[in-house]
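INTERNAL AUDIT FORM
Audit reference: QA-55
Scope: verify that the stored structure record matches its stored sequence.
Auditor: D.O.
Record contents follow.
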Amino acid sequence: MAKKTKAEPDNFVMFDVVYEDGSKSSRRKINAVGLQKDEIEDFARTEIMTQDRKIAEMSGKIRGNIKSLERSA
């Protein structure tokens, strides 16, 4: 059986998200293929908001607005 190859580490960036209501979501994964370093945070904010909308549709629980983003270690 063939092994699955993992995506290259540079393809994804992990972020810790703090919401305005004080809740925190750790290690949110963003696909950053082809992005410049200065574009990643703006793209990540948009992408996480899109992920939150999809999660809210499925679960019925709406997340608050994003207060801050910080890259995970």
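Auditor finding: record pair retrieved intact. Helices lie at 40-59.
Action required: none
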